[in-house]
Amino acid sequence: MIPQDYTVIDLEMTGLHPKNDAILEVGAAKIRNGEVTDTMDIFVNPGRKITQEITELTGITDEMVKEGLSPAAAFHKTAEFIGDDILVGHNIIFDYSFLKQQAVNEKVPFEKKAVDTLKAARKCMLRPEKKSLECLCDYLDIEREREHRAIYDALATHELYQYLQKTYGETNPEVFEPKDLIYKTKRQTPATKIQKIHLKELADYHKIELDIVWEQLTRSEASRLMDKLISQYGRCPKD
């Protein structure tokens, strides 16, 4: 049976890689019998500055996420909202990979089934040629109040899913069968005390203001940041 009860979800992130990038915004809507019954839209403080490219794409600024939830708190709030629901999303494995990474960091299970509207559109629709959410919304006249903002993209994905399953559900029912989401990753460990000391010494010596949340800094992030600063400014002289 094609799911009519589900949670549709969309995330905005600082980049494309769950191990190196972070969630900025989570938008989700709970659907019952094909209708929206509840929504959630939260900002997440990524613990780093947002690049100009991401701000231009999403409209999300450092000031907007400054008072946002921590990545851990945002994950737990999202997981609670989803509950035992099937997920629906456009290229859902991409959004899931960021949530799964945080789940692994938190040492909690997060196994889900989902229907992917991107895969469904590619299977069922000849046009438009590109199957991005933007192109499909334009083609089907699905309105979004703002593009690349999580809640509006989630609601647009819900409308897209309803169109796809009503139009192609009888001829391609297998496309709408929820599939297990599989993304394997390793836990990101917190930065060590020594890493933080060296990073602060490096920043102080070169008079660099680091706009990071020290409590959220991971070992790999600290290592990459130190390498970047040394590459740009050089090492601290030894005593």
Automatic annotation (TrEMBL):
GO terms for molecular function: exonuclease activity. It comes from the Bacteria. Keywords: Exonuclease, Hydrolase, Nuclease. Residues 5-170 form the Exonuclease domain. NCBIfam families: dnaq. This is 3'-5' exonuclease. It comes from Roseburia amylophila.
